[in-house]
Amino acid sequence: MKKKITVLPGDGIGHEVVEQGIKAMNAINNVFEHHFELQVHDFGAISIEKYGIPLTEKTLKNCLESDAIFLGAIGDPKYDNDPTLSVRPEQGLLKLRKSLQLFSNIRPITTYELLNDASPLKNERLREVDFVIYRELTGGIYFGEKKISEDKSIASDLCEYSENEVSRITYQAFEAARKRKNKLTLIDKANVLETSRLWRRVIQDISKEYSDVEVNYLFVDNAVMQLMLNPSQFDVILTENMFGDIISDLASVITGSLGMLPSSSVGIKTALFEPIHGSYPQAKGLDIANPMAAILSVAMMYEYFDLSQEAEMINNGVNWALKNGIITKDLNNENPSACSKVGDVVAWFIEEKGSVNIKQELTKLSLNCII
Ligand code: IPM
Ligand code: MN
Questions:
Q1: Alpha helices in the chain (DSSP H)
Q2: Counting atoms of ligand 1 from 1, which one is nearest the CA of 137?
Q3: Whether this model's pTM surpasses 0.70
Q4: 25 phi and psi angles, rounded to 5 deg
Q5: 245 CA → ligand 1 middle, Å
Q6: Could you give the count of Cα atoms lying within 13 Å of 155 in the half-sphere of its Cβ?
Q7: Helix crossing, 358-368 with 339-351: angle to 10°?
Q8: Is 188 tagged catalytic?
Q9: Is the CB of residue 245 below 6 angstroms from any atom belonging to ligand 1?
Q10: Which protein residue's CA is at the shortest distance from atom 11 of ligand 1?
């Protein structure tokens, strides 16, 4: 298969984790004889430094012409700490999402038994936790009209949704539920917000076409509590942009590390794949960041291209590395492996087509994997 991929490493640890994802991609393409043409572009703070804006027209054009985008992370404390700056890295991400109409952000939350002790939740609460968040990504308060009064003492952000914006992601979420455990939970604030009541109405209508899917409704304040108390009750969570942002960070800690969670954003044509973690600037260049989320995002890309065997092999590679303790500092402070080593190991597992002689190779790895 031939594909055109735009790679946006972004800022901070973005470069390091993306490099490991590309190792996995190259290994898969060798084994399965696919040809992916990669084009790397600056994006985020690094693009502001070089060109004055976080997303240049040239980069955007390249993204629009690609089959998929592989993104690292964006952001820099310089911008976070100064709200008066008018140009910010995040604007690039929002523009990219809007231009590509990436209206559906999919964030699977999977637990790995081997990482249970890294989770702040008790082990018994982690049993059978496996759900996916469908977050609306191009509407709501993120994109509504923003106002600030002349004397700058009053500000407002409009939260607006149309039926069409709600229904297109709702169909995707119902389809996903059908392939999973047939359960969908809408998270909203329908006791207060008009937009939430619109979401409920649209979902109630569409649910008639999916009588095999059980639908539940939760107010967001209750939902965050439920996510901590009983996360295994969820299958597909559907929610609007802002709630989805907050809920997915909260949900990520269940797994034990933000460094384990991939995501995809899909819309009309080109899809985007990225780890859900940020740019972790303190770790930049230290080769300590967890590349698993980036590698798993590459697996989601193959899944999106309907190449399930390829996706599975990457997932198996990640599981193999976990099982053999080839993990970064966030998961094992005592004997961590470097980010680049984790990437090497997963790529090597793929190159060997998964048939590795564990005992023999472990000897090799234990020598290789100490930072
Ligand atoms: C995310 C991020 C972004 C968001 C930021 C960087 C604009 O937090 O992808 O979750 O809020 O959507
Ligand atoms: Mn976020």
A1: 14-32, 45-51, 57-64, 77-80, 89-99, 123-126, 163-179, 194-207, 220-229, 241-255, 292-304, 308-323, 339-351, 358-368
A2: 12
A3: yes
A4: -60, -45
A5: 7
A6: 5
A7: 150
A8: no
A9: yes
A10: 245
Residue 367: pLDDT band by 50, 70, 90 thresholds? Answer: very low
| CA–CA dist 287, 279 (Å, integer) | 13
**Residues 203, 223: Cα–Cα separation, whole Å:** 18
User: Residue 82: its pLDDT value, please?
Assistant: 84
Residue of the CA atom closest to atom 1 of ligand 1 = 245
Tell me the three state secondary structure of residue 256.
coil
Ligand 1 atom closest to the Cα of residue 97 is 12
Q: Whose CA is nearest to atom 7 of ligand 1?
A: 90
Lowest mean pLDDT among 68-77, 148-157, 170-179, 324-333: 324-333
Minimum-distance ligand 1 atom for the alpha carbon of 93: 7
Of the residues 11, 235, 245, 287, only one is catalytic, namely: 245
Percent of the residues in the chain that have a pLDDT greater than 90, as a whole number: 89
- Of 79, 142, 161, 210, which is the active-site residue? 142
Contacts of 334 (CB under 8 A, 6+ apart): none
For residue 20, the one-letter residue type is: Q
- Residue 209 carries which DSSP code? T
Burial classification of residue 240, based on how many CB atoms lie within 10 Å of its CB (0-12 exposed, 13-18 middle, 19 or more buried): buried
Q: Whose CA is nearest to atom 9 of ligand 1?
A: 276
80 band by pLDDT with thresholds 50, 70 and 90: confident
Catalytic residue (choose from 117, 147, 221, 323): 221
**Residue 205 falls in the annotated catalytic set:** no
Instruction: Write down the mean pLDDT value for the chain.
Output: 94
